[in-house]
Amino acid sequence: MQHGIYVFETSFLFDLLKEDAEDPNSSHDFGRDIIPRIAKDGKAVAHHFSQSCVRSTAESGHYWRDVGTVDAYWAANIDLTDLVPELDLYDRAWPIWTYGEITPPAKFVHDVEGPRGSAVQSVISGGCVVYGAAISRSLVFTGVHVHSHSAIREAVILPYARIGRHVRLNKVVIDSEVRIPDGLVVGEDPDFDAKRFRRTEDGVTLITGPMVEKLRQ
Q1: pLDDT digits (tens, 9 = 90+) for 176-197
Q2: Which of 53, 64, 146, 176 could form a disulfide with 133 if both were Cys (CB 3.0 to 4.6 A apart)?
Q3: Is 12 helix (H, G, I), strand (E, B) or coil?
């Protein structure tokens, strides 16, 4: 089945989901059960994505990503750090209209050898402060603070997370408002990471608040 964007009447979809939940022969999968049933017993209309997708001149093809897994979510975000990403966030002819929080600009502090605040090949959102830490090939959401002597690489850090001092993170997704304790190292010992957090088959480590709380117990 092709992935896509689906539009339903709310009451109609709720009725279908309730009936599917009570069907012992259903696998309770949206693509395997719900959509085929509508196509067979009701009315389903398809519109090809390429017919309505607007591209910038820098984009080579129609952009679509399924981000239903941790690996796919990480990859789609890290793709935005490429020199010429497939999705052009900076195309003023096709702006992305979504919730926009008013924040101060991102700030990088400590211009001394060692704890120098820096970011390369990364997307750093408003409200972020990088205190003497090095960030590379990462996407950092609004209001994140990263403290001194930390090294962050290939990370997707969600809003208002706090990264402590002397932290090393590689190939991670950090949930919003998570407090990473001083000295935490993730991405260097796969077996150790899997015991503490959720590590995927592709080597991406998901870190959530409850997981960090367990470390303190």
Answers
A1: 999 999 999 999 999 999 999 9
A2: 146
A3: helix
